[in-house]
């Protein structure tokens, strides 16, 4: 699968395609079009991990002003696909298995706790929204639509715990992991198994069974870590073995 770990660079697109990105995707603003193009280039390995992105260069390449480029950088930072570096400015995210594991180890300590607390607080409106979200996740075939639904499902649970500091820590950790989710959004791995895990979490919450909700959430996060870390390790190994690396 294409990842930003790939070091082989595809043949550059013709000049007429690179310029005026706002004409490439109907209905998008220039900032959205630049964001879409840069996102694709990161995911396909055209832009390498650690590569510096300069506003002026990107603006000139896409035939736009620096304003939509700056907005695109902000959007990509929210997705975790680029980071702000004190010395380099904006650079392409560099994924590592160690970083991924550390993120999930912290989340496995915090998110199940929030689920347990939420089980005692969720009302019928919360449960209806969670049920609706689960149904949408089950029915979608677009993995990029799946990601915000998954985020909505989890955050609805954690907010119901009514622990502001706990929620803030979870949101920061999930934001830091967003790039990994996006990297693997070309496919929803083990979607039926993931759906079953979400259903188990929901069943525990609907029964207001805190300990069971905690256990179900911990199991779900551990499974996600195992799947994504295995695929990331394989992608990094493949890149290291590539003659173009």
Assign a percent range to the helix content: 55-70%
- Give the overall silhouette: globular
What's the total helix number?
11
Task: Kindly report the average pLDDT value.
Answer: 85
CATH topology of the largest domain: Four Helix Bundle (Hemerythrin (Met), subunit A)
> What would you report as the Rg, rounded to the nearest angstrom?
20 Å
Overall structural class, as computed from helix and strand content, comes to mainly alpha
Count of discrete domains: 2
Task: Please write the CATH class name of the largest domain.
Answer: Mainly Alpha
User: Which consecutive residue ranges, at least 5 long each, have pLDDT under 50?
Assistant: 1-19
Q: Approximately what portion of the residues adopt beta-strand conformation? A: under 5%
- What is the level-2 CATH architecture name of the largest domain? Up-down Bundle
Sheet having the most strands: 3 strands, antiparallel
CATH superfamily of the largest domain: GntR ligand-binding domain-like
Distance between the termini: 16 Å
Question: Secondary-structure element sequence?
Answer: HHEHHEEHHHHHHH
Strand order of the largest sheet: 1-3-2
Protein name: Transcriptional regulator, GntR family
Pfam families: FCD, GntR
Domain HTH gntR-type: 28-95
Keywords: DNA-binding, Transcription, Transcription regulation
Descriptive account of the structure:
The chain is mainly α and 245 residues long. It has two domains: 15-92, Orthogonal Bundle (Arc Repressor Mutant, subunit A); 97-241, Four Helix Bundle (Hemerythrin (Met), subunit A) (Up-down Bundle). It is built from eleven helices and three strands, in the order H-H-E-H-H-E-E-H-H-H-H-H-H-H. The protein has helices at residues 15-18, 30-43, 55-62, 66-79, 97-119, 124-139, 143-159, 164-176, 178-183, 191-206, 210-241, and strands spanning 52-53, 82-85, 89-92. Strands 1-3-2 form a three-stranded antiparallel sheet.
């Amino acid at each position: 699968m294409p990842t930003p770990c790939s070091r082989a660079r595809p043949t550059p697109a013709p000049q007429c395609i690179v310029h005026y990105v706002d004409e490439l995707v109907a209905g998008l603003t220039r900032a959205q079009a630049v964001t879409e193009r840069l996102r694709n280039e990161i995911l396909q390995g055209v832009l390498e991990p650690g590569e510096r992105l300069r506003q002026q260069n990107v603006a000139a390449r896409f035939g736009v002003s620096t304003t939509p480029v700056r907005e695109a950088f902000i959007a990509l930072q929210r997705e975790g696909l680029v980071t702000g570096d004190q010395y380099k400015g904006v650079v392409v995210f560099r994924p590592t298995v160690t970083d991924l594991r550390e993120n999930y180890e912290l989340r496995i300590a915090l998110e199940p706790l929030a689920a347990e607390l939420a089980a005692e607080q969720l009302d019928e409106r919360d449960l209806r929204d969670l049920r609706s979200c689960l149904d949408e996740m089950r029915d979608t075939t677009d993995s990029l639509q799946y990601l915000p639904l998954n985020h909505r499902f989890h955050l609805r649970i954690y907010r119901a715990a009514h622990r502001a500091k706990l929620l803030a820590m979870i949101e920061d950790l999930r934001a830091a992991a967003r790039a990994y989710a996006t990297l693997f959004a070309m496919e929803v791995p083990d979607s039926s198994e993931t759906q079953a895990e979400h259903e188990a979490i929901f069943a525990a919450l609907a029964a207001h069974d805190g300990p069971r909700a905690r256990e179900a959430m911990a199991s779900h996060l551990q499974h996600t870590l195992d799947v994504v870390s295995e695929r990331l390790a394989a992608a990094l190994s493949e890149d290291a073995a590539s003659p173009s690396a």
